[in-house]
């Protein structure tokens, strides 16, 4: 069959092209197949609901991962069809893990400064555990060994690491002695190790259900002071420093199967679990992943997938932590909590009671990592400006520590940006070897010694979910920030700024700084990427509150915007969407009108006939309201061949020949962007021309070309093939009988005009403009066979000059020949995409080369 033959040729041609690519690039074939979403042209989609999706491409397996708030995560190989990764929601126990503290340590008490010690260096069962002055002997060395479930046993150097720390008789009572005993795996020999905000550790006993921990009895500061088990309340006599005793003695092993409250126990000490706004539950939001080849594990090996996340209890009391893994799928072992917000100058106890129990958090800054940083010389001092006159947190100038995202700059330096509403968006440089912030230490201008540099927002104005993407082609860092409230009527939407340096100054298309003053009207700041919109070609009720985006430049240089969106259906349901982006002539990324369905932009541009016509049109404006935000108005405009714009908006338009660039001038504002023929979001995913442009006024305008709605197919038309995009044409514009019918690039001549006239019996004849409409489209020799030629001949009303014109589901038409009893139709021979490709009759099977678009010719 002809269809099979064409498919075989297509495979052969594709194989030759790919072989050329491999040879030129010096790549293995597998790396291309896994390298880019564009390697697949499918428009098939599998939806996923992930809030605040952060995208990461893992070159080791060719997968794209998105991680989001509330423990939702998914993967895809083409950015269209998504599969859930593990359990969705807070019962998931595969993403996060508790800290990996495997290794050999000296264990120093914070209060006394003395060290755990096996009395007299004994190796015997029952030897007492005490504190003693440091001497570096084996009696003071302890080896932490993971059981794989978040618990550890602690072997003693005094026994040659054969015996371990043991809670006498497995008692849970306060005052129970801690001693040395041969390891046999009993519950009294298991411990959970939880890092505290000051960098010390609680060593909690499983014998007590982890409600008690190792404690220096009676706050002794003397060598020989006894170690016992006592109800853990956070006293300094219960906190321990783990001091490395043997270099690189750790491992990269992650615990598995832990409940979230155990995996992130350290961050939850401040916020995010059974506390205030997350009473009875959790508040773990907006993780972001990066692969860092320079990260050093505690066994000395390098390279880690790093996940930065936030936990939050109120609109200002939150914290940011991070974990590491050997896999993009996790689990990510907790490392540290690095930024706290919402702290107070003095004691302030916040108590929450729920089905999960009663929890009290003292919001004094002393319960964050700030005192530790000062003692280590990484921060000069506290700052009076952090607090208002009442001693509460000054959230007008300082951030809410949520929504972290991490990236490398053009020089290979590692950075984290974060923040939400409150004091704005901040940025901090990170140490790639540890993942720790390089705190500025001192304050200057928009830079705070602890929080970093403010690069956007402030004064409690909306703005969250910062995401920075560096584009080497333009040399800019692009900062995305989401304005509004995330609910369906909250006006959630994405804004964009850019800078030549990663830490600012970020500006919008009008040149405005992203940093606000108390009087800033934020509606005027930032390019509004899109708002709430609807087109007739959408298979949804229209999109609302699309935001909290990430972005990626793929291995083939293609740009994508990834975000979650709600719908105009009256619910809070949300899904992920991915749109392509393209740099305009001013190096601003413009966002494609429709989600990515496998289309590719034509780098050499499009024909005038493709670009001219009537479009559904949306101006996304600059509104920044956060309540009762409805849908934007969908208008109609026509791009005329003389360069004017008519309809609901008027102006002028032009394009740059040989490219996809275009400009429009509407109401005196110049917009710059691209034309892009892409698959729409109708059920048939037909290809339509679209445009997307950004104005100097920070507005984005979108258009999607409409197919003329024909109440009747009678009339004069240009007839375009759906596959090639070329037009029916009488060869050489001849008016003679037997002149050939071919396809040709659009030129608007009479040779491309055809008048469809009804015969009154369901059939039509098609008169040719080349003949002055005296001749018609004719099946040569009145044949019914495949391959019969189509030509021009004097109209006589015979059956080989009659056609049934049937509308297809995608809005195109089949031109079926009565000569074949309508079994066959007009067809571009051999799927030609060249001007001059012949038109013949072929058995109709619905191929794109047999479908035709009727464009009114006037």
Can you tell me about this structure?
The N terminus is likely disordered. A hairpin with a 5-residue loop joins strand 52 and strand 53. The strands form 17 sheets. An eight-stranded antiparallel β-barrel has the order 37-38-39-40-41-42-43-44. The protein has a five-stranded mixed sheet with strand order 5-21-20-19-18. Helices cover 6% and strands 38% of the residues. It starts with a helix and ends with a strand. With 858 residues, the protein is mainly beta. Among the domains are: 144 residues, Trefoil (Trefoil (Acidic Fibroblast Growth Factor, subunit A)), CATH 2.80.10.50; 156 residues, Lipocalin, CATH 2.40.128; 142 residues, Trefoil (Acidic Fibroblast Growth Factor, subunit A), CATH 2.80.10.50.
Main attributes of the structure:
mainly beta, Trefoil (Acidic Fibroblast Growth Factor, subunit A), Lipocalin, five-stranded mixed sheet, 6 helices, 56 strands, 6% helix, disordered N terminus
